[in-house]
Amino acid sequence: MGKNRLEAFSDGVIAIIITIMVLELKVPHGADWDTLVPLAPVFLSYVLSFIYTGIYWNNHHHLLHAAAKVNGPVLWANLHLLFWLSLIPFVTGWMGENHFGALPVAMYGVVLAMSALAYLLLEHLLVRLHGNESALAQAVGRERKEWLSIALYALGIGLSFVHPMLGVGLYAAVAVLWFLPDRRIEAKLAH
């Protein structure tokens, strides 16, 4: 089956996720810089989550651009990914409102790790559908960066209970690692 509905649906869900996150930003009561200080954790968690959502949208776009078709398992794997991504506004708000408390930061990492695993599953199912010799399979290649990210999320979850900002720092490091879209797919499709 074609992939257009899957792409359109995913784009819509991701747009809603971003909308929900921005609606959680409350307007301060006051007109001086001091009124913004208490909002800093909320704003910083929003920025990190906006970047993550953008990373997923960007890489999802590249992945589906390389795919020629989808099937039932791919549709379910995509819903699985969207489920975990849809929890980002919740953990973002929880983390920001509680000034990066240990449990909210750890749960933020759990949602990020599960999103990464869900994306990896979607990638595997698309490769299986298209075959190991397909351009998609060759473009995706080894998943070192994916597994490194998951390991860093796990470390960040654990370190969140030592000092929450260590977890946030690792989550930010993974975002930097993925900030640019996955160039393997672009490079392979260009040839």
From TrEMBL:
Is Ion transport tagged as a keyword? yes
Q: What coarse category fits the chief subcellular location reported for this protein?
A: membrane
* Lineage top rank: taxon: Bacteria
Give the keywords, sorted.
Ion channel, Ion transport, Membrane, Potassium, Potassium channel, Potassium transport, Transmembrane, Transmembrane helix, Transport
Q: Does the keyword ATP-binding apply?
A: no
Q: What Pfam families does the record tag this protein with?
A: TMEM175
Membrane topology type:
Multi-pass membrane protein
TM region positions: 6-23, 35-55, 75-95, 102-122, 150-180
Which compartments is it annotated to reside in?
Membrane
For molecular function, the Gene Ontology terms on record are: potassium channel activity; proton channel activity
Q: What cellular component terms from Gene Ontology apply here?
A: membrane
The record lists the catalysed reaction(s) as: K(+)(in) = K(+)(out)
Family recorded in the similarity comment:
Belongs to the TMEM175 family.
Q: What is this protein called?
A: Uncharacterized membrane protein
